[in-house]
Design brief:
Blueprint: E1 30-34, H1 39-50, E2 54-59, H2 62-76, E3 81-85, H3 91-105, E4 110-113, H4 129-157, E5 160-165, H5 179-198, E6 204-210, H6 248-260, H7 262-265, E7 268-271, H8 272-278, H9 299-303
Parallel strand pairs: 1-2, 1-4, 2-3, 4-5, 5-6, 6-7
Helix pairs in contact: 1-2, 1-6, 3-4, 4-5
Length: 318
Amino acid sequence: MPEVTSAILNIEPIELERVGIAPDALEGEVAVVTGGASNIGLGYARAIARAGGKVVVSDINEAAGAETERVINAENGAGAALFVKCDVTQEEDVKRLAQKAVEKFGKVDVLVNNAMNMRLNGPVLGSSVSDLDQSYAISARGVMLLVKEFVPDMVKRGHGTVTYSGTQFHYCPPMIGGTIYCAGKAAATSLIMSLANEVKGTGVNVFCLTPAGVGRFDPSKMPPPPEGAPKFDPKMFAMPGFEGFIPPEAGGAAMVYCLLNASRLHGSGFIINEVFDAMDFPYPKPETAVRMGGRKLGDMELTMAFCNMGQGFATSNE
C-alpha cells in the first residue's frame, strides 16, 4: 500500500492486513459514507476502499471532500472513490448524491450514515431552538432522506447494509457530546433500529455502531464545554487499550469488520470496543483494555429501552 500524505487531512496509514482483513474483503461492494471527509467518517471511507470496496464520499466541505477523493484514489488506484458535495438535510442534494453514485458505480450496497455537526453540543437551557432543529435536520431528517433514497433498491436486490454512527443516549458530564447533539443522534438511532425490523428478512442488514473515543482532535480548537461542565481534559479520554483517542484508521478497520459480519449484527447496537474485542484488535496498550460489552437487550426490551430509565418506582432488591 503506498503511503499517501495530505496537507489538508490529518491521516495515518491504514493497515487492515494486521487485523486479518484481506485487501479484497469488500470487493464488488459500493459504499456511500456521509460526513466522509473528516475524522471517523474519513476513517470509514479509507478503510472500506482499502478492503476493496468502492466509496462515494459525501460531505459539505468541498475542499476536504475533494482531497479525500484524491487520497483514497492514490492509496487504492484510480476510480476507487468519488466525492459528491452534499448537505444531507436537503432532499435535492441527497437525490443528486444517489444519482452521481449510480452513474459512477452502478449501484450502492452500503449506506454509512455518519454526518453530524459536533458543534451542536450545548445544554437545553443554554441552546437555541434552531440548534435543536439543525441537530434533528442532520441526524433524523438526513438519515431518513438517505434511507428512502438508497434502501428500496437494496431491498429489491435482496442485498445491502445500512449503519449509523450512534452516540450516548443523554448528556452526562464530562463526556463529549452535549444535550443537543445527543438528542438528534438518539432520534436517528431510534429510526435506524426501527428500520432493522422493517427490512428484516429482505437481505438488507441494519445496525448501529457507536465510535466512542474515536478522533484525532486538537483540544484547543474544540468548542467550549457547556456552563458548569468540567473543563475538557484529553487525559480523561485515554480509551481502553489506547494511549489517548482511538485513531480514525482503527475505527475504519472496525467498520469493515462489522460490514463483513453484518448479517449476524442485524438489529444490534454496540460500542466500538466490542468490535475490537471480537476482531482481536492488536491494542497498542493491551494491559489497559477492558471489555465494554454488556447484556444485550431482547427485541421487546429494546422497544421499551427509552421508557425504563432511572429508579422510577422500583425498589431495592438488597
